[in-house]
Task: structure prediction
Amino acid sequence: MSESTSSTLQYRFDGPEEAPVLILGPSLGTTWHMFDRQVPELVKQWRVLRFDLPGHGGAPAHPAGSVAELATRLLATLDSLGVQRFGYAGCALGGAVGIELALRHPERLASLALVAASPRFGTPDEFRQRGVIVRTNGLDPIARSAPDRWFTGGFAAAQPAITEWAVQMVRTTDPGCYIAACEALAAFDVRPELGRIGVPTLVLVGSEDQVTGPAEARTLVAGIPDARLAVVPGASHLVPVEQPAAVTDLLVRHFSTAWQQPFDTGQTALPAAAAPVTGPAAPAPVAMPTPAPAAPPRTAPVAEIAAAAEPQRPVAQPDRYETGLKIRREVLGDAHVEGVLARADEFSGDFEELVTRYAWGEVWDRPGLDRRSRSCVTLTALVAGGHLEDLAVHTRAALRNGLTPQEIKEVLLQAAVYCGVPAASSAFRVAQQVIREETTPAE
Result:
């Protein structure tokens, strides 16, 4: 095992040093232990490297704000080990890292498996809202709901020890790193680029996955020229945990038969593994318990071939309007912006274009202030002007931009001194209602 820095990732090796390297990438909120039950079979052919996301599994809390940054840190880790070429299998966020590697560094990748992955994970609103919940309430609400997202009901009921392991795994994650990972997933969208992935790819999904299910998997297969789809019955999002034997079989078959030769030189030999994790700040990782014997019987995986999609057209360079529309969606949310644009007509359409192009595409895109600071300024200006409807919208935006309810309260108290107590009184009522709505975890 290793101790990571801000530019590398915490990792561990298993298997013979002379074997080709196979990397396993975890999903958001999990650790490398999610692949514990695949490793014994995989190490018969590969040198398996598993890594932890920043702040997960006791890894140092150095947040990464994008999938590209996670891929860069992984490559820096591999470079430090002398690993030039490798196979890669990743689950969900780990799968997004694999897609990034295939698009930006195809010369490093010999074969790819995407587990419970998607070219776009839900909507940006969903992940930014999750960040608001964690920033306000901590990770406990997310941890308690994790089994419902990750496992089928039958598995969760039959495997209480594994269910509790999943909850504790999320609880021990660093909240700041979890929020940064949510931001990374909110910004991830490679749908127009899938046709450029040239590495042999297995797309693997649980049939009952309600997070990134078979529909998302088929989108990947349709877009990636050399891709095969495998649907595992009786499994939800964490299919390597719920149906470990089926996933192991599929990974072994794929990487045994679809290992692309390097473009030039072969893989560099590996040095000895680094020293174990040290330091009092790293909590002990939560290892997966042995499953109960009463687990539901495994059903054999079903694989099918999907037809390739038509080639995607190149994406035009965005102008100020497109830039503004992107920022407006990120700050105010897709639902709000869609509603505003849907209500625009021949009379108001030019005004909405003006606001999008200049307010959002020019001012909000300037580098002089970050979005948190711009939210503080905006809230104060809206209090001064008495624009309570817009204050509600921008209170939600402030939460999405990273302000806590405590910080919003301080902004309104400051505004009370300089804008007047009556104006601030109305503002507190509006902000209080919005904060309650946005920070109360869903049942």
